[in-house]
Amino acid sequence: MLINDFAPNPDAVETHSVVINASREIVYRTLWTADLGGAALIKILLAVRSLPQFISSGFRSLPRHQKVTLQTIMNSGFGMLAEKPNQEIVPGVTGRFWRLTGNLSPFNRSDFDGPVPIGMARGVWNFSVAEQINGQTTLCTETRVMCGDAASRRKFLTYWLIVRPFSGLIRLIMLRRVRKTAEQNSFKR
Fold first, then answer.
1. Alpha carbons 132 and 53: distance in angstroms, whole number
2. Quick one: fold of 2-188?
3. How many whole angstroms separate alpha carbon 36 and alpha carbon 91?
4. How far apart are CA 180 and CA 21, in angstroms?
5. CA distances for 156 relative to 38, 83, 86, 123, 163, angstroms
6. Residue 59: pLDDT band by 50, 70, 90 thresholds?
7. By CB neighbour count within 10 A (0-12 exposed, 13-18 middle, 19+ buried), where does 90 fall?
8. CA dihedral 33, 38, 41, 45 (to 10 degrees)
9. N or C, which terminus of the chain has less Cβ within 10 Å?
């Protein structure tokens, strides 16, 4: 898997998967176009996470009714590390995730070729698509985080203890939204 090239020895790992009644191509295409953030619970969780930035920006309005696709996620701080069309994509992000504001660094692809800087953490997230014999497709997502030093690891793991259940829930809901949309698209054909 491509994710192994960027996070072979993570400090934290979270995995989820879903089986979808659609071809690999439909699932992969849907992964890029589905509204991943359309569920009310995801909107609430993302709003809670954005609250400190909203307050520190002087209560400037947050975007409303914006469709959350994989591309909008990429535009919000993640960048593309690798892609094998119809099989796997690997976005990545670097930052101090445990901070309330100013927690993400600008994406620079070449930063992922070296070690994680001291005081920082690196998140690598993949989506992989595998077609099964019975015509179904398994869509998996895995999140891996590596920290640059012991102090960052302690801060991140404390943060992760609190955030992990909600982060996992968001990913499960995203996978289910892809499943629902892909199956609807598959049955229209």
1. 43
2. Alpha-D-Glucose-1,6-Bisphosphate; Chain A, domain 4 (3.30.530)
3. 15
4. 9
5. 28, 27, 32, 11, 10
6. very low
7. buried
8. 70
9. C
- The whole-model pTM stands at 0.85
pLDDT 10s digits, 19-52: 999 999 999 999 999 987 766 666 665 555 554 4
Q: Which two tokens stand for residue 140?
A: 């998996």
Residues 155 and 162: beta-carbon distance below 8 Å: no
Q: Which residue has the tokens 């398994």?
A: 138
What are residue 122's DSSP bridge partners? 94, 146
CB contact set of 44 (below 8 Å; sequence gap of 6+): none
